[in-house]
Amino acid sequence: xxxxxxxxxxxxxxxxxxxxxxxxxxxxxxxxxxxVFNATEYMKESLVEKFEKDxxxxxxxxTFDSNEAMYTKFSAGVTKYDVIIPSDYMIQNLIKxxxxxxxxxxxxxxxxxxxxxxxxxxxxxxxxxxxPYMWGTVGLIYNKxxxxxxxxxxxxxxxxxxxxxxxRIFVYDSERDGFMPALKNLGYSLNTTNIDxxxxxxxxxxxxxxxxxxxxxxxxxxxxxxxxxxxxxIGYSGDANLIISQNNEMAYFTPKEGTxxxxxxxxxxxxxxxxxxxxxxxxxxxxxxxxxxxxxxxxYSPSIEESAQALAKGVFxxxxxxxxxxxxxxxxxxxxxxxxKVLSDAWLKIKVK
Amino acid sequence: MKKIFQKSYIALLLLFCYAPxxxxxxxxxxxxxxxxxxxxxxxxxxxxxxxxNEMMKAIYxxxxxxxxxxxxxxxVGTITAIGLSKSKKIVRDIVLEVNNxxxxxxxxxxxxxxxxxxxxxxxxxxxLFGLVTMLLAHIMFCIPYVILSILPKLRQLDSNLAEAALDxxxxxxxxxxxxxVPQIIPGIISGALVAFTMSVDDFVISYFVTGNGxxxxxxxxxxxxxxxxxxxxxxxxxxxxxxxIVLIIINVIPLLKERRLKSN
Amino acid sequence: MNSFSKMAKPYILxxxxxxxxxxxxxxxxxxxxxxxxxxxxxxxxxxxxxxFTEKAFLEVLFLSFRIALITTLLCIIIGYPMAYFISRxxxxxxxxxxxxxxxxxxxxxxxxxxxxxxxxxxxxLINTFLESIGLPxxxxxxxxxxxxxxxxxxFLPFMVIQIYTSLSKMDKSLLQASEDxxxxxxxxxxxxxxxLSIPGVIAGITLxxxxxxxxxxxxxxxxxxxxxxxxTLVETxxxxxxxxxxxxxxxxxxxxxxxxxxxxxxxxxxxxGER
Lengths: 353, 264, 275
Prior knowledge:
A: D-Maltodextrin-Binding Protein, domain 2; 43% helix
């Protein structure tokens, strides 16, 4: 018995350690089924059905609620996926771990017309591994009737420390999006690896905590801002679109110090059982018309300019910030294992204070 | 007077239990996306749920897994509990400690260790990931609750009864089914209730052990909470409706039978 | 008798495979670290040292126990009368009432918690009502009150079910005898009914306290992200920080503390049983 336990223990460890190194070699061209891994409600179901009808390829659709949950399942190797739609920093991590395959551009005739901001992202400058899907910025979602525009313009991220807005603020509960405003307000890069700068940002956040007593939330930000629960919230531009379209007292603002540009993109894992089907799938969703219909359903801003313009003039014409604007000082988040741990511990200490 | 007090206490607590459920049902008819701000009556979320294959499948998987897991866990749990009550004290104590582990471990720990276990045994990318792994996992975390619910009832049981039955020439099977089981029925029922509840509500463990596109309602609901919309209320209301109909059928059929017997 | 004790054997094997083995894996992670990117594990105690030397972690530990204890106590105080009153109803209604209490639990925790947000928040049901009748708003959400309310709401049915089970089908002749001997109803309850229901109360405590300590959805949504409990902490370590080793260490610490406290409860239980 003991032996069995020990052997299997060793086996399990070996497996987790090796991860997905046992990649399968190129498979047959005419595969009939692909597995897609995406955030939920992040793709219009009827479009997936249309793709199935058009190509005869079956789509098995799986969902995740965070990039990290996705990575845990993916790297453990529970299922072999053909298409995954993660965010920028996670794609960078996957490329580094050698888990993605280079895309065959010949099979992606629709891979054109991207916004400039997403056409050469830092994590994949030549778009060799990824095809941009939706994108946006992180900013402040605020109540136009309660928050002064002058405060926003003059204080930028510093408004989070303004006692005038005490107990009126939601802060996004993740070390990544939580540290960003502090680092940017202090004039540092959001990807800093300088411990001294991180400590200063920690102090900044502790001051914020004392001055405005914000509530830390994640998923309920959307719903609570729609009902006007607080006046200011750190949030994604995509969520801002959804909030503004339901409550026109709300608006979206990106402070002058710069912010985080995020890009969600479609990738194909190295061990994808059906790479040809994956390419067809990606190409289908890059079609400007499909992209437009898909983005209309999701509410986020699509990566293809033509589709975004059509929506900005059409259904989303009531949202002035529908198409994200960028500044020189904006940055894409970079994955760094060590810094992540430091920030994660610091974030906990800030919150429980 | 006393009866009135008791009845109103029960009624008050039931109101407390159902307040959020009523709230949820009301918002399943909300015209906007919000879960907390009502914008007018609409059936659009029901339309969305009923037209979505994914969601209807999720409801099916939820009930299928919960029912099978509850039945298996209740049978195994009952047998084990009876066995344990007659085992040596040291064996019983150790097994009960071990039994508590899945209840006290954070779900994520159980989830990840089960995921690793299944990968070790089944291999990565196995087609068994999905229904089979989810069923095994649910049975695994349901059994402890059943055992826990039955043991107190076994302790109330007069241990001489079974022995008397055996002395009187009953086979162990007869002693079990005719003497022990009838006495602990309330414990078995409450164990099954708790097991069913745990299975229906579980998200984290299900999420990490599933594969090949198999999803239950919990997975659907949790991953959906990112982009809030009342279809999670609609899907829950549908579940409540299904449960209510089943309960009515179960409760009404015996009544009808009774009536027919009487009229005969 | 031996033929009965054999009945536990299959489950013992099953538990070894599905419970003990994964737990060993967790403990293995708790006491090791990965050296660089090579798959080499080395023994270390640093995760435990990290946990016990950082004030923030100890605060989380303390908070979790405090909330779980309060929840358990309130569940007993509110749930015991409920279970007792149910057991005094008509036999047919009893089952129905127990079912009625359980059914809300079949709705996903997240959906129920969102409903509580809607009821409790500043722009929610209660405060809108107060405002409409001219009363000032009260701060409900993101407070201790909201978290404990959510926890009690979620765990109360388990307590009621367990206590009810031990009260139901109680030997009626015992109650009769007690009354015949001239005991007041309260004496009968204290001397006969209550002692008999103790195993149910203990089972209820186990069912409430153990899961309560590791919940994370309720505190996170009703208390806000600053309301970090052990469950949240472990979840964060596994999923967000990618620190499986530290996460495993925290859950090992939790398991040890809880097993120890269970042992104490069991001793108390035994004493009560002997009385």
